[in-house]
Amino acid sequence: ELSRQDTLTIIDFSKPSNEVRFFVIDLCGQKVLHKSLCAHGLNTGRLYARKFSNEDNSKQSSLGFYVTTTTYTSRKYDLALRLKGMEYSNSHASSRGVVMHAADYATYDFMERNGCQLGRSYGCPAIPADNIENVVRWIKEGSCMYIYYPSRSYKRYSKYLNRKNYLEDFVNLD
Fold first, then answer.
1. Residue 8 buriedness (CB in 10 A; 0-12 / 13-18 / 19+)
2. What is the pLDDT of residue 14?
3. What is the pTM of this model?
4. Which pLDDT score is estimated for 174?
5. How many CA atoms lie within 13 A of 95 on its CB side?
Protein backbone atom coordinates (compact mmCIF):
# COMPACT_ATOMS: atom_id res chain seq x y z
CA GLU A 1 0.00 0.00 0.00
CA LEU A 2 2.88 2.39 0.69
CA SER A 3 4.07 2.58 -2.90
CA ARG A 4 5.76 5.98 -2.59
CA GLN A 5 8.67 6.20 -0.23
CA ASP A 6 9.96 9.53 -1.52
CA THR A 7 7.81 11.77 0.69
CA LEU A 8 6.56 11.84 4.26
CA THR A 9 3.84 14.17 5.55
CA ILE A 10 3.87 15.03 9.24
CA ILE A 11 1.09 16.93 10.98
CA ASP A 12 2.19 18.03 14.45
CA PHE A 13 -0.93 18.49 16.55
CA SER A 14 1.18 19.18 19.64
CA LYS A 15 1.49 22.73 18.25
CA PRO A 16 -1.37 25.23 18.45
CA SER A 17 -3.48 25.78 15.33
CA ASN A 18 -2.08 29.28 14.84
CA GLU A 19 1.40 27.86 14.13
CA VAL A 20 2.76 26.00 11.11
CA ARG A 21 2.25 22.29 11.78
CA PHE A 22 1.83 20.61 8.38
CA PHE A 23 5.08 19.46 6.75
CA VAL A 24 5.75 17.60 3.49
CA ILE A 25 9.27 16.20 3.50
CA ASP A 26 11.22 15.06 0.44
CA LEU A 27 13.04 12.05 1.89
CA CYS A 28 15.36 11.63 -1.11
CA GLY A 29 16.37 15.29 -1.27
CA GLN A 30 16.27 15.64 2.53
CA LYS A 31 14.33 18.89 2.48
CA VAL A 32 10.96 20.30 3.40
CA LEU A 33 8.86 20.74 0.26
CA HIS A 34 5.95 22.49 1.93
CA LYS A 35 4.87 23.72 5.33
CA SER A 36 1.64 25.40 6.33
CA LEU A 37 -1.11 25.83 8.85
CA CYS A 38 -3.43 22.86 9.38
CA ALA A 39 -6.86 22.82 11.00
CA HIS A 40 -8.02 20.01 13.28
CA GLY A 41 -11.46 18.62 14.11
CA LEU A 42 -14.22 20.73 15.65
CA ASN A 43 -14.46 18.55 18.77
CA THR A 44 -10.70 18.00 19.00
CA GLY A 45 -10.13 21.32 20.72
CA ARG A 46 -10.01 25.04 20.10
CA LEU A 47 -6.50 26.50 19.77
CA TYR A 48 -4.89 23.22 20.86
CA ALA A 49 -5.84 19.73 19.73
CA ARG A 50 -6.65 17.74 22.87
CA LYS A 51 -9.23 15.00 22.11
CA PHE A 52 -9.04 12.45 19.32
CA SER A 53 -11.46 9.83 18.06
CA ASN A 54 -11.93 7.22 15.36
CA GLU A 55 -15.72 7.15 15.77
CA ASP A 56 -18.30 8.20 13.18
CA ASN A 57 -19.77 11.68 13.69
CA SER A 58 -17.25 12.52 16.43
CA LYS A 59 -15.99 15.56 14.46
CA GLN A 60 -12.59 14.80 15.98
CA SER A 61 -9.22 14.27 14.34
CA SER A 62 -7.58 10.83 14.47
CA LEU A 63 -3.94 10.17 15.32
CA GLY A 64 -1.49 7.85 13.66
CA PHE A 65 -0.21 6.61 10.34
CA TYR A 66 -2.17 6.92 7.11
CA VAL A 67 -1.50 6.06 3.49
CA THR A 68 -2.62 8.62 0.92
CA THR A 69 -4.78 7.26 -1.88
CA THR A 70 -6.70 8.96 -4.69
CA THR A 71 -8.03 12.44 -5.28
CA TYR A 72 -11.48 13.72 -6.13
CA THR A 73 -13.34 16.97 -6.66
CA SER A 74 -16.85 17.81 -5.54
CA ARG A 75 -19.10 20.75 -4.82
CA LYS A 76 -17.72 20.75 -1.29
CA TYR A 77 -14.01 20.51 -2.17
CA ASP A 78 -12.18 21.76 -5.24
CA LEU A 79 -9.59 19.06 -4.56
CA ALA A 80 -9.47 16.42 -1.82
CA LEU A 81 -7.06 13.59 -1.08
CA ARG A 82 -8.46 10.37 0.37
CA LEU A 83 -6.65 8.91 3.38
CA LYS A 84 -6.55 5.29 4.51
CA GLY A 85 -6.03 4.88 8.25
CA MET A 86 -3.53 2.14 9.08
CA GLU A 87 -4.06 1.79 12.86
CA TYR A 88 -6.74 1.20 15.49
CA SER A 89 -6.74 4.97 16.08
CA ASN A 90 -7.71 5.89 12.51
CA SER A 91 -9.02 2.69 10.87
CA HIS A 92 -12.43 4.31 10.18
CA ALA A 93 -10.94 7.29 8.32
CA SER A 94 -12.28 6.17 4.94
CA SER A 95 -15.81 5.42 6.17
CA ARG A 96 -15.83 8.70 8.14
CA GLY A 97 -14.89 10.63 4.99
CA VAL A 98 -11.63 11.92 6.50
CA VAL A 99 -9.69 13.52 3.65
CA MET A 100 -7.03 16.19 3.31
CA HIS A 101 -8.52 19.29 1.71
CA ALA A 102 -8.15 23.04 1.43
CA ALA A 103 -10.29 25.31 3.58
CA ASP A 104 -10.70 29.06 3.86
CA TYR A 105 -10.80 28.61 7.65
CA ALA A 106 -7.21 27.28 7.59
CA THR A 107 -5.56 30.58 6.59
CA TYR A 108 -3.77 33.51 8.20
CA ASP A 109 -6.58 35.80 6.96
CA PHE A 110 -9.13 33.71 8.85
CA MET A 111 -7.00 33.88 12.00
CA GLU A 112 -6.72 37.66 11.79
CA ARG A 113 -10.51 37.97 11.57
CA ASN A 114 -11.23 35.38 14.28
CA GLY A 115 -8.99 35.93 17.27
CA CYS A 116 -5.74 34.25 16.25
CA GLN A 117 -7.01 30.72 15.82
CA LEU A 118 -8.05 28.63 12.85
CA GLY A 119 -11.49 27.32 12.17
CA ARG A 120 -12.02 23.60 12.55
CA SER A 121 -13.03 20.73 10.29
CA TYR A 122 -15.18 17.67 10.96
CA GLY A 123 -11.99 15.65 11.57
CA CYS A 124 -10.10 16.24 8.33
CA PRO A 125 -6.63 17.78 8.14
CA ALA A 126 -7.48 21.03 6.33
CA ILE A 127 -4.80 23.30 4.89
CA PRO A 128 -4.76 26.63 3.02
CA ALA A 129 -5.64 26.48 -0.69
CA ASP A 130 -2.34 28.09 -1.70
CA ASN A 131 -0.21 25.44 -3.41
CA ILE A 132 -2.61 22.56 -2.62
CA GLU A 133 -2.31 21.20 -6.17
CA ASN A 134 1.45 20.74 -5.71
CA VAL A 135 1.05 19.32 -2.21
CA VAL A 136 -1.44 16.74 -3.44
CA ARG A 137 0.75 15.87 -6.43
CA TRP A 138 3.74 15.33 -4.13
CA ILE A 139 1.97 13.03 -1.68
CA LYS A 140 -0.96 11.30 -3.45
CA GLU A 141 -1.24 7.62 -4.27
CA GLY A 142 0.74 5.78 -1.66
CA SER A 143 2.80 8.06 0.57
CA CYS A 144 2.85 8.05 4.36
CA MET A 145 1.09 10.70 6.44
CA TYR A 146 1.60 10.77 10.19
CA ILE A 147 -0.63 12.79 12.50
CA TYR A 148 1.29 13.29 15.73
CA TYR A 149 0.25 14.23 19.23
CA PRO A 150 2.07 13.14 22.43
CA SER A 151 -0.69 10.80 23.57
CA ARG A 152 0.39 8.06 25.98
CA SER A 153 -2.46 5.76 24.99
CA TYR A 154 -1.77 6.18 21.27
CA LYS A 155 1.92 5.51 21.81
CA ARG A 156 1.16 2.43 23.93
CA TYR A 157 -1.20 0.86 21.38
CA SER A 158 0.32 1.98 18.07
CA LYS A 159 1.36 -1.06 16.09
CA TYR A 160 3.95 1.00 14.22
CA LEU A 161 5.61 2.70 17.14
CA ASN A 162 5.89 -0.60 19.00
CA ARG A 163 7.10 -2.93 16.25
CA LYS A 164 10.38 -3.40 14.48
CA ASN A 165 8.89 -4.75 11.25
CA TYR A 166 6.21 -2.11 10.73
CA LEU A 167 6.98 -1.69 7.02
CA GLU A 168 5.44 -5.07 6.20
CA ASP A 169 1.97 -3.55 6.74
CA PHE A 170 2.71 -0.70 4.35
CA VAL A 171 4.73 -2.43 1.64
CA ASN A 172 3.64 -5.53 -0.23
CA LEU A 173 6.62 -7.80 0.31
CA ASP A 174 6.74 -10.74 -2.13
1. middle
2. 98
3. 0.92
4. 42
5. 8
